[in-house]
Design a protein that fits this description.
This protein is an alpha+beta fold and about 425 residues long. The protein has two domains: about 130 residues, no CATH class; about 210 residues, no CATH class. About 60% of the residues lie in helices and about 10% in strands. It has 16 helices and nine strands. The strands form two sheets. Strands 4-3-2-1-8 form a five-stranded antiparallel beta sheet, with helices on both faces. The chain has a four-stranded mixed beta sheet with strand order 7-6-5-9, with helices on one face. It is globular and about 75 Å long. The N and C termini lie close together (about 10 Å).
């Protein structure tokens, strides 16, 4: 009889979270906050504190692992779920993870292709890049879309978040760059920004937890095969934030070619350190002009100064409002640059690359600019998509998982009621 009473008590204890789901509400809100703040590991720890059955916890962790692109762990959780509830099929969940793995592989392959492209890491001129972009199927816009797709699918993955920050730096105002960068640093502690120099490919690493800024050589390549004598060499560094006394930049144009000027650089630190160029720096200059390049460069410098947060750091940043001007060629070169930017944006393979820079914008070029403007207005921007996804994905996740849990609750309540009735019936018979 005592055993029967203990079983009844156990069943009642298991019924509490099913009959009173409000006990989970506060924890569900905290979980939602962690996911919105991109804190995947904290979210996983919080799941363990929730009033859920083991298979429900595994299901919730399964979805979080998928968003982290921690796919091996996600697969192992399907095995655990099946062991806990053999009657529940997991084949569909396993198929989804397999699909995730294939998508992640393709995205990484193409994003890496851009990372190691000669256009991304080499010197250029507007005339040269206009010819190369169509032949190489190269587009900074495509890179941005790839990153958006990766962030849409795996918004808690560290590598994806680094890419998403860099895409934001390339395409959004400073306020958005600072806000998103702070969010990532608060979530995972570090940011890695792709860089290149005359001799190396490397990452500029911001480590907020240890309050250091450093360079780390890309171990996948021995050198920058696209480097040239026009570029500055890397001067590696690893400094505490409070050691940095100044941040300097140079990003002017070569007045003869409109390319990025020799001896330009994105980040120079005192007392020591030179990280010459962020990925695409030359390409942005050649495709979109000096003002666009300086805007991105300045935003990077401002963000570094913001993160280091030292009132004694002297800043000598580029000014997008100040243009390098050769007064004898000013009009013709700005006109030519507009044509080049339009041809890249529309991915046009033009055969008039030898045309004089003094040539005025043709009627055809004007049509191209108008068409591209209309297309851009119709197409959702990369960063808009990123922000929309950051605002909605975690709520969709919670809805999906907890709808499954609610169904489980109903099913389990029915099961518990049957067992409870059986036990109480047996107890009555034993009297």
């Amino acid at each position: 009889m005592l055993l029967k009473n203990q079983q009844v008590e156990t069943f009642f204890n298991q019924l509490i979270p099913i009959l009173s789901p409000e006990l989970n509400r506060e924890l569900e809100d905290l979980l939602d906050q962690d996911l919105a703040q991109l804190k995947g590991d904290e979210a996983l720890s919080l799941v363990d504190k929730m009033y859920l059955e083991p298979q429900q916890k595994e299901l919730l962790k399964f979805y979080i692992n998928r968003r982290q692109a921690n796919l091996a762990t996600a697969i192992s959780r399907t095995v655990s779920m099946h062991a806990l509830s053999p009657e529940k099929p997991v084949a569909e969940l396993q198929r989804e993870v397999t699909e995730d793995a294939a998508i992640l592989s393709k995205l990484k392959e193409r994003i890496d292709w851009y990372r190691y492209s000669a256009i991304t890491n080499g010197s250029c001129t507007p005339d040269w890049i206009r010819k190369e972009v169509p032949t190489q199927d190269y587009s900074i816009q495509e890179y941005a879309r790839l990153v958006a797709n990766a962030e849409d699918r795996f918004p808690l993955n560290s590598w994806v978040l680094d890419q998403a920050f860099f895409a934001t730096l390339l395409s959004k105002p400073y306020e958005d760059t600072e806000s998103f960068g702070d969010k990532i640093l608060n979530a995972k502690g570090t940011l890695r920004i792709p860089f290149y120099s005359r001799d190396m490919l490397f990452d500029l690493v911001i480590d907020k937890r240890s309050r250091r800024i450093r360079t780390e050589i890309d171990s996948r390549v021995q050198s920058n095969e696209s480097g040239s004598d026009r570029m500055e060499p890397l001067i590696a560094f690893d400094l505490r934030f409070d050691q940095v006394t100044s941040i300097s930049q140079k990003g002017s144009s070569d007045t003869g070619t409109f390319a990025l000027a020799k001896e330009s650089y994105a980040v120079k630190l005192e007392p020591t350190g030179l990280a010459p160029y962020y990925a695409f720096m030359d390409a942005v200059q050649c495709l979109y002009g000096e003002a666009a390049q300086k805007t991105v460069t300045e935003n990077l410098g401002r963000f570094l100064a913001h993160v280091m947060a030292s009132p004694t750091i002297v800043q000598h940043l580029v000014d997008p409002e100040k243009k390098t001007i050769d007064w004898l060629r000013f009009t013709s070169e700005t006109v030519a640059l507009g044509t080049v930017a339009a041809s890249e944006a529309a991915n046009i393979g033009s055969d008039n690359g030898t045309a004089s820079q003094s040539q005025q914008i043709s009627a055809e070029a004007m049509k191209t600019l108008a068409a591209d403007k209309e297309e851009a207005a119709q197409e959702k921007s990369i960063t808009s998509a990123q922000e929309e996804e950051r605002q909605t994905w975690h709520s969709q996740l919670i809805k999906t998982v907890f709808s499954e849990i609610e169904a489980d609750r109903a099913h389990e309540l029915e099961t518990f009621e049957s067992k409870l009735l059986s036990l109480t019936g047996e107890a009555e018979d034993g009297k």
